């Protein structure tokens, strides 16, 4: 599809290198491009939500409430939650690659996330 999540790239690319299926410079290149693409995509999505008027009224209040809830903990807890979230995304990537059919891929992605 031409798109890749940074979290998935940090799992699949080093795995490919360890298995001897990819060169180190290609692994680093994919991870860097995925990171840059995710940053650009995040900013693009932020601009889109602003242009669509989703940062107003009840939606904005809900977003602020969620944001405050997720960032009110200490740095260490937020860091560990980030590791846990990345692990779950990597597990979804792993499970969907192991599935042989499309329904198995959907199930492999849905349960961890």
Keywords:
113 residues; mainly alpha
Description:
This protein has 113 residues and is mainly α. The chain has 5 helices and no strands. The two termini are 20 Å apart. The relative contact order is 0.10.
How do the strands and helices of this protein lay out in sequence?
Layout (H helix, E strand, L loop, with lengths): L5 H13 L5 H28 L5 H15 L3 H24 L3 H9 L3
Report the mean per-residue pLDDT as an integer.
90
Question: Which geometry do the CA atoms define?
Answer: globular
| Strand tally | 0
Count of runs of 4 or more consecutive helical residues: 5
How far the N terminus sits from the C terminus, by CA atoms, comes to: 20 Å
C-alpha Rg, in Å? 17 Å
Helix percentage range: over 70%
* Structural class label: mainly alpha
Biggest β-sheet: count, sense, barrel? Answer: none
Give start-end ranges of low-pLDDT stretches. Answer: none
Relative strand content: under 5%
Give a short summary of the structure.
The chain contains five helices and no strands. It has helices at 6-18, 24-51, 57-71, 75-98, 102-110.
């Amino acid at each position: 599809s031409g798109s890749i999540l940074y979290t998935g790239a940090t799992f699949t690319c080093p795995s490919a290198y360890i298995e001897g299926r990819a060169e180190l410079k290609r692994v680093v290149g994919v991870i860097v491009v995925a990171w840059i693409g995710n940053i650009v995509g995040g900013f693009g999505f932020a601009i889109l939500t602003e242009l669509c008027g989703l940062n107003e009224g009840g939606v904005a209040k809900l977003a602020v409430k969620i944001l405050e809830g997720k960032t009110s903990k200490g740095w260490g807890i937020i860091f560990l939650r980030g590791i846990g979230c990345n692990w779950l995304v990597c597990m979804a990537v792993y499970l969907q690659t192991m599935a042989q059919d499309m329904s198995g891929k959907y199930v492999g992605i849905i349960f961890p996330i």
